[in-house]
Write a structure and sequence with these properties.
Layout: E1 4-8, E2 12-17, H1 33-44, E3 54-55, E4 64-70, H2 73-84, E5 89-97, E6 104-114, E7 119-123, E8 131-143, E9 146-153, H3 160-167, E10 191-199, E11 206-210, H4 225-235
Parallel strand pairs: 4-10
Antiparallel strand pairs: 1-2, 2-4, 3-4, 5-9, 5-10, 6-7, 6-8, 8-9, 10-11
Amino acid sequence: MHIHILYEDNHLLVVEKPVNVPVQEDASGDPDLLSLLKDDIKRRYQKPGNVFLGLVHRLDRPVGGVMVFAKTSKAASRLADVLRKGDMGREYLAVVHGQPRKREATLEHFLWKDTKKNKVHVTNSKREGAKRAILSYEVLDHARNHSLIAVTLQTGRSHQIRVQLAKSGTPLYGDQKYGEKLNRPGEQLALWAHRLEFPHPTTKEWLSFESMPPNVHPWNVHPWNALQKEASMYAR
């Protein structure tokens, strides 16, 4: 499996996660990104023994795009602190059904996860285990019955983008779990981790990485002017 490396030094490894690959080992037994990257580092640098690679954040299995891993325990600790403080910028691109009521807005809900069914529900703040979830979005383009939006996370809850957008009446294209009434089995979830920004764990230099969704359905099903413009700038 080819995994595109966007950046690497002694402390960090930034890659483009392929879609439908679990971030870490799960019950499916399918090859996972963390193990694949460890094996790759071991091979490329001919390292004996176990390879350390810290998981800083996660992406759902169907989601592709930018991810950062820590190559040292110090980098892992510092990046975890950056994430906890909300100082890691995370922007996603998504194709949703319909058109959001507002061109730009901030959504805030309390979410509760049913771990047995691996499904997240919008609830009230008093429910045990409920966590506050906040995101902002901007509509970039609209064509026929779909919209292309940019989503910026302020919190990082499980399935957050999928649940909050579905609750707002615009479920993600291809989301079988939270948009089953509009999506058909086999459709690919249209959510992509587009931009990741954070300070380097040792130099403190501000780093910014971008990844564009593939030129496949549904990203290319409409003439997304905003996406085409972004893609041409990315190519340069």
